[in-house]
What we know:
The structure is a single chain. The chain has helices at residues 16-40, 165-179, 203-211, 251-255, 272-296, 301-308, 337-349; strands at residues 55-58, 63-66, 72-75, 86-92, 95-102, 105-110, 115-119, 134-141, 146-155, 158-159, 191-194, 198-199, 223-230, 239-246. The protein is of the alpha+beta class.
Amino acid sequence: MHSDLYKKSLRNEDLQEERRNKQLQEQKRLRTALQDEHRQISNVDIAEEIELPKRYFDSRRNKEFTKIRPMDSEWLWQRPSDLQNWLIMPYPKGQRCILIAEGACTRIYTKRGKLCCILHTRFPGDLMKPGSGTVVDCVYSRADNTIYVIDMLAFGTNDLVNCEAQFRFFWLKSRFQDYEIDLDNDKGGKKIVLLDKYDFAYIDSVEETVKRFPYWPDNKPKLDGFVFYHKESSYVFERTPLMCWLFPYMITDVLGIPSSIRYKKPTDYIGATQYMHFLNENEMKKIKRNNEKLKSEPMDASLLIEMSETSDIEVDSSVELVPNDICTTGGMELDSLEEMLAAERSLELEGK
């Protein structure tokens, strides 16, 4: 039942472009409907507070959660016929997380929704920038203690989920410049950095990007791979063919664009498509092992619930939480951000 959580072909990688076009049409239809709805209330002040994702507290596990989940990618099985309508983003090795600023503080959640950190930023919704709130998709790199911003779902009173990716990224970049986004008085020395995107309509910049090694100075953080976004795609809370992924050593095989030969291929790599299938098979074997473990080992009910909501067995550490609607003004780490996110990352890599 967890098979949809992985970058797998479903034996229909040849249909990826067809599924992609179908999703694009559906998203365009939804945007048009929303625009028509706003026109009908054009004489009304609509600059109201947006509805941020609800937080909830599980007393059985003594943890706070959010139901929001980040958008997830598929393999880029083939070169898109409309490659000029795509963007590419270098992605650092790290742990995916969701950052939510509201109620005079900023919370960081793991990609499975578990609260792991409370601190202060200059995003709207935090103490320094009062406003409706901010929801940002991020990846945390332990190598340089940096939170890299991928995408933005909400900012102030603006809901960006149904906006096209190209607009979201433009908005995100301009807000970073206007608000001088950063952490406030973070004792751990963390930074917030916006990840760059490159447009395939300007192929020279893309070619320069995939040839660069190391991508970041001193190879910190290391480049994990490249994420591809269709310019017209909305943000969805599931896996989508409008957001795709390749490891650096797959770029030339799939896109026909020369990449740096310093990104070493695995010893058992014989081609991009074959290796994608190989990795998918390993993931499915891991799912099967975990499902068998669920059936064979006695567990308490709360752990069973937690495992049923995730694809892996999650490392469970005690977290001392502040009440759901209270934030300390000095910033507070509820658990080691590095340890909790690293635990999730290690589980994702297990079996590969």
